[in-house]
Amino acid sequence: MSPLAAGFWGAFFGTAALMLVLSLAAYVRTRRHVALLAALSAAISASFVVAYLGWLPMEGRIEARVLAHVAILAAAILSPMLMSLLGLLREPGAPERVFGGFALLALVVIAAGWLMDPPEALMLSWFTAFSAGTVMLVVAMRSAAGGNRFGRPTVAGMALLLLSLAGLSWIALDRTVAWQVHAMSALAGMGFLSVMATATWSRYSYLLELSEVMAHGPSYDPVTRMRSHTETGQLVGDVFLHRDAEERPVGVLAVCVANLYALENLHGRAAFNHALFLCAGRLRRCVPQTVEMGRLGEDGFLLLTRSMDDLRGLEQLARQIRDGLSRPVSLSISREPGRMDARATTWMADVGVGVLATSTKVRPAQAVSTARAMARTAWSYTTRIARFDEKAGQIAEMPLAPPLSVA
Amino acid sequence: MDRLAAGFWGAFFCTAALMLAISLAAFRLSHRRVALNAALTAVFSATFAVAYLGWLPLTPNAEARVLAHVAVVTAVFLALMLMSTMGMVRHTPVARRTVAALLGGGLLVLAAGWALEATQSLALSSIAAFSIGAAMLVVAARGALRGDRAGWKAVAGIVCMLVAIAGLSWIALSGTAAWPVHAISALAGVAYLCVIASVLWARYSYLLELSEVLAHGPSYDPVTRMRSHSETGQMVGEVFFRRGAEARPIGVVAVSLANLYALENLHGRAAFNHALFVCAGRLRRCVPQNAEMGRLGEDGFLLLMPNAPDLERLEHLARQIRDRLSRPVALSTSRDPAGLEAAGTAWVADLGIGVLGTTTQVRPSQAVATARAMARTAWSYPSRMAFFDEDVGQIAELGAAIRPLPAGAVPA
């Protein structure tokens, strides 16, 4: 094999490996079966190529037998997979029919192949794979002419599959072909993999989008990706009014941002949303797992905890939140999506934090409104944190603490 | 070149080409800066590899000169790119000084190279490129130790880049053909490109998410990605009260879904949202460009056709919408993310369409309310379409005798 041919095949295997790794990573992250389909198609294509390039440690008759099996199996798995990925098998019953038809075809061809000599069996497998592929190509072309959105990509994918199959068969018959044949079949294989990857990606991103859409509703806030105000009320009820009605300590933290309203009036709703999104992200990063969070009204967040560790470190947590949220941000003030980073203004959240350590005996509504009022009071304090001073019996500023390590 | 080495370099160039193609596609869609960053990284890395593999048709002396320039230029550019990717190029004096130092150092090395012989200048440039990389490594490692989110990724990327540069320099200087060297440098290059691509992808998807979040508000419906009900009211007002206040014909089409409410009560909000999302997507695909569209109430859509054609064209559109929307959908009824693909229940939208050809002289709220009432009336017609019959002076079934409802569209 010439170095040029080797380079092209290297590119093909690189594509297949990338696709495999990416789809496995996607599967591990979100557990969508679509990702597994992509991994499967990459692996099947790569093993098909390995077999046809003659890299398996076998010779002559055995190789022909193996190649006969590989050819028909790859064609019978990849063709229906491409069609189903591209959404051509939407009608109820169609996937079963097509997959079943291909499985039956593969079985018949393999059984017939065992009745013949290895070279003849290989010929039969090739012939069947080609004719099945051609039939699918015609079907896809007809559906493309009928205005199916996915028709054209399917036609392209099937054509590339057939081209690659033809080139590889030639290579398998004659191991000394010119590098152009190698290059063409490798490029066709890469094209086929790209079509597969694009189809899988569009399906995958559709599913991601759909799962986000399905989360929308009264209990989900699309901007902060947290509980909405009403759902926060539910959460408060859950925490306070637990079944086993013993008295337990509860830590309530309210965070209120003073200058969100002014931001909306100055730069519009988009800037408001951007600021809220950033604040929610920062809050999520600096709050431990055991703390429950939700939106509180238009301009605030409520944090609740019942774990003893958090209760002890409640004031520490308040300081962390203050330091985390009050770092400056650069907000985009243009609504045009492509120019996100073009026009920007620097903004700093003007936060107030109210810290209230209470117990489940208190009425939940009272605890929440107290914490919120404390947070609003804290806007006028230098430390921006208000707590309930039990000795004096009133809301007081939290004393300055030794400076913390940078959060 | 050895066959195995050629294979590995093929994989590297294929990765670079894929990255270039994908980033160009992303560039066309949105967020130009990030996409451009990715494209430039791919192009620069590929150029560097081509030059260092000795594929340029040059004499040895000239080649060494060219390589010296390529090395410094790509090293400076990749360093700047890395800094901007990792968010280190903020407009602070320190950052500005760093950028200036990088550029100045690069120029200095190039100038010094011309005072030396070709091979010596190549060695100097390679050392300069390598030290820039090492400096970036130190910066990134410090950032990672301080808890920078992208820090360890940056460290991995720079290590891969250094390995690739070292391998390529060795290949260029000694002309070795041992395939393990080629394989290691090519794989390191692939890994470097993958790390950069993943960081840029994170940034790109963040920007996409952000632009979606920015759109939220009273005028945007997050489920259907259309105008919300209140914004639809604004849109109706704009279309009806346009400046050039002549009376123009206008087509109003209201679509109302009868069984959404039942769906919500049976399977919950998630199934409701899923159904609405699918219906909105189908509607968007079959409606012509010049039609204005928005949500109408909880369970409907409103379409306005300015410069409205005659009733026949509207009827054609309504029939298209009916056929498209009343195809069955498999809705998932579980909120579990992995269960999304498993079809939970089959659902067919039970829709009614009201078609009203009117003029801008009519009060808009009246026109919309009429169309909506007609859509609701149409639930009881076999053809599911209603229009105002001017001969009889009342609402009547549209296209009753022309074509029956397709077989699949009859709700169970």
Topology:
The complex is a heterodimer of chains A (about 400) and B (about 400).
Chain A: H1 3-30, H2 33-52, H3 60-85, H4 94-114, H5 118-145, H6 151-173, H7 179-215, H8 229-240, E1 249-257, H9 260-267, H10 269-286, E2 292-296, E3 300-305, H11 308-312, H12 314-325, E4 329-332, E5 344-347, E6 351-359, H13 364-378, E7 385-389, E8 394-397
Helix pairs in contact in A: 1-2, 1-7, 2-3, 2-7, 3-4, 3-5, 4-5, 5-6, 6-7, 9-10, 10-12
Chain B: H1 3-29, H2 32-52, H3 60-85, H4 93-115, H5 118-145, H6 151-174, H7 179-215, H8 229-240, E1 249-257, H9 260-267, H10 269-286, E2 292-296, E3 300-306, H11 311-325, E4 329-331, E5 345-347, E6 351-359, H12 364-378, E7 385-389, E8 394-397
Parallel strand pairs in B: 6-7
Antiparallel strand pairs in B: 1-3, 1-6, 2-3, 4-5, 7-8
Helix pairs in contact in B: 1-2, 1-7, 2-3, 2-7, 3-4, 3-5, 4-5, 5-6, 6-7, 9-10, 10-11
Structure write-up:
The complex is a heterodimer of chains A (407) and B (412). Chain A is built from 13 helices and eight strands. By secondary structure, chain A is an alpha+beta fold. Chain A folds into two domains: 213 residues, Rhopdopsin 7-helix transmembrane proteins (Up-down Bundle); 177 residues, Reverse transcriptase/Diguanylate cyclase domain (Alpha-Beta Plaits, 2-Layer Sandwich). Chain A is elongated, with a radius of gyration of 32 Å. With 412 residues, chain B is of the alpha+beta class. Chain B has twelve helices and eight strands. In chain B, the strands form two sheets. Chain B has a six-stranded mixed β-sheet, with helices on both faces. A two-stranded antiparallel sheet of chain B has the order 4-5. Chain B is elongated. Chains A and B meet through helix 1, helix 7 and helix 10 of A and helix 1, helix 7 and helix 10 of B.
Spans where pLDDT lies below 50 across 5 or more residues of chain A: none
Q: Output mean pLDDT of chain A.
A: 84
Strand order of the largest sheet of chain A: 2-3-1-6-7-8
Rg calculated over all Cα atoms of chain B: 32 Å
Give the averaged pLDDT of chain B, no decimals: 83
Q: Please summarize the sheet with the most strands of chain B.
A: 6 strands, mixed
- Estimate the helix proportion of chain A, in percent: 55-70%
Helix segment tally of chain B: 12
Q: Globular, elongated, flat, extended or rod-shaped: what is the shape of chain A?
A: elongated
| Broad shape of chain B | elongated
Q: What fraction strand of chain A?
A: 5-15%
Predict the CATH topology of the largest domain in chain A.
Rhopdopsin 7-helix transmembrane proteins
Structural category of chain A: alpha+beta
Q: Structural class, from secondary structure content of chain B?
A: alpha+beta
Beta-strand segment tally of chain B: 8
| Proportion in helices of chain B | 55-70%
H/E element order of chain A: HHHHHHHHEHHEEHHEEEHEE
Number of helices of chain A: 13
